[in-house]
Design a protein that fits this description.
Layout: H1 2-31, E1 36-45, E2 49-55, H2 67-77, E3 82-85, H3 91-94, H4 109-118, E4 124-126, H5 165-181, E5 184-186, E6 192-194, E7 203-205, H6 218-235, E8 240-246, H7 253-259, E9 273-280, H8 288-316, E10 321-329, H9 343-363, E11 367-371, H10 395-406, E12 412-417, E13 423-430, E14 433-440, E15 446-449, E16 458-463, E17 466-471, E18 476-479, E19 484-488
Parallel strand pairs: 2-3, 2-11, 3-4, 4-7, 7-8, 8-9, 9-10, 10-11
Antiparallel strand pairs: 1-12, 5-6, 12-13, 13-14, 14-19, 15-18, 16-17, 16-19
Helix pairs in contact: 2-4, 5-6, 6-7, 8-9, 9-10
């Protein structure tokens, strides 16, 4: 009996030892694969331009503490397809004709000129999204603050245009485009209004988030788009158009189905590009340890919508391009927001943009625009790409710049595998050479194993320590929480 007991103990110990060996072996196999890149296996030729949007608000007015720094950062970035949006919270900064026949752009012109000069030499997308309230049927006249810097969320009232409103709407936008491209316009009374401006407007986006603003139906949006596009083309034939700009694309699939069907448009109306938006929105009480899952899980859900929209677009209007022109994250409490946002948030939100950029490039999306250059307390501070006190770029801006400086349309995306599941890895062949973009989706450091080809490489990185470029040796690197890095030869 004692012999059998001893044999039994030995057998149990041997069994436990074997399990531990298997577990350790499995742990080594799972924790340290090297990223495998097949440089000759091209999976996609990139069409994707990384860029951003600039939303009009008081800190961008001349004389503000951050005006010069913010516009300098925009200029130095040198991005194409930057989106410029004067919009509803500031009627006096967004609407040129607040009363019928009374034209006043004295507060609008300075920011618009500063924007066009900062982006000179690059394509832009202008979107004067807020329509004059007097064009709509409302129970009583819509008022607005005398103070142009005061926030007013109630200006966009009414759902239906008043009688004759469609023609007047088109006329308003024709005057606005003439103001900036033709040196002015002649009004209905035959009076000449001179601006002296002769800018080129490559793209004009027609309205913003019509699924929210004026709760516009697909049919009404299409009629208004056609009227405005025709009126603008009569003034500026070279201008192309961006349409829809939906806030909730997954909620309104009929907008895509109706708008992209050419049978629903006037003859000759161009359907150059469509747009829609995505913001990750964590719940109240979530921390960075939650954001590391919420942000990227919600992005994956958004791309289910993108795939669906792409099928509609390819079926109905395959030559129409796509811009995802508001990409970001919004913390609970915005738009009022709060002054204190943890520093790691900017890295997490920047990593989210990098993740969306790579995924969109894999899907053939044309433009991915980060939102937005300046936000501040009372006006969506958590979407800001610069410090609203100093104008200095934060991690969100720096990550866009990192991507913009390294990648562009025409780059080759090649087969990339073997990265940890919580690190996105995508290799590119660019005119400057081979590059590997890495995104740490987690709020903890992640160690990456590389092949020998990288043992004397260089790395540009944006992480919680800042932004910089370093050389490294060996085949192992560690990315800090929410870091975004580009390895290059």
């Amino acid at each position: 009996m004692r012999g059998n007991r001893r044999d039994s103990i030995v057998m149990r110990l041997a069994s436990v030892t074997a399990v531990l060996v298997l577990l350790c072996s499995a742990g080594r196999a799972q924790s340290s694969p090297a990223i495998e890149i097949k440089w000759d296996a091209v999976s996609q030729i990139s069409k994707t331009t990384p860029t951003l949007q600039v939303v009009v608000n008081p800190p961008l007015r001349r004389g503000s503490a951050i005006h010069d720094a913010a516009f300098r950062a925009l200029h130095d970035l040198g991005a194409d397809y930057v989106r410029y949006v004067p919009w509803l919270p500031y009627p006096k900064l967004a609407v040129a004709e607040l009363q019928p026949g009374v034209w006043d752009t004295s507060l609008i012109d300075p920011m618009t000129v500063d924007f066009l000069k900062a982006t000179e030499g690059h394509s832009t997308i202008l979107n004067f999204s807020t329509m004059p309230a007097w064009l709509f049927r409302t129970d009583k006249p819509v008022t607005y603050p005398d103070d142009p810097d005061a926030v007013d969320w109630d200006y966009t009232q009414g759902k239906d245009l008043r009688p004759g409103g469609l023609q007047d709407l088109a006329g308003y936008y024709a005057r606005l485009v003439s103001w900036y491209t033709k040196g002015g316009f002649v009004d209905k009374q035959g009076k000449r209004h001179d601006s002296g401006f002769h800018f080129k407007l490559p793209y004009w986006e027609i309205f913003n988030e019509p699924d929210f603003e004026h709760v516009t139906s697909a049919a009404d949006y299409t009629k208004r788009y056609d009227a405005v596009a025709a009126a603008i083309h009569a003034v500026s034939p070279e201008t192309k158009f961006v349409a829809l700009a939906l806030a909730g694309p997954s909620d309104r699939p009929e907008m895509f189905e109706y708008f992209l069907n050419r049978k629903n448009h006037r003859p000759g109306i161009p359907l150059d590009m469509i747009s829609y938006h995505f913001y990750a929105t964590p719940a109240v009480g979530e921390t960075p340890d939650h954001w590391q899952y919420t942000f990227f899980d919600q992005a994956d859900g958004f791309f289910n919508t993108v795939r669906y929209v792409e099928q509609i677009r390819k079926r109905l209007s395959p030559e129409t391009r796509t811009t995802l022109d508001e990409i970001g994250s919004i913390l609970p409490g915005d738009p009022a927001g709060k002054e204190t946002i943890p520093d790691i948030y900017w890295n997490a939100s920047g990593a989210l943009y990098a993740y969306v950029y790579v995924t969109a490039a894999r899907m053939g999306i044309d433009i991915v625009g980060e939102s937005q250059l300046v936000g501040y307390p009372t006006q969506f501070p958590s979407v800001s790409m610069v410090d609203w006190n100093t104008g200095e770029p934060n991690a969100r801006f720096r990550i866009l710049k990192l991507i913009h400086d390294r990648f562009r349309p025409g780059d080759k995306l090649v087969e990339t595998s073997g990265s940890p599941s919580d690190v996105l890895a995508q290799a590119f062949v660019t005119p400057a050479g081979r590059a590997l973009l890495l995104v740490n989706k987690r709020n903890v450091p992640k160690t990456i194993q590389l092949k020998e080809e990288w043992k004397n490489g260089h790395m540009s990185v944006v992480d919680s320590s800042g932004a910089g470029t370093v050389s490294f040796q060996g085949t192992e690197i560690t990315l800090k929480a929410f870091a975004v890095a580009v390895l290059f030869e």
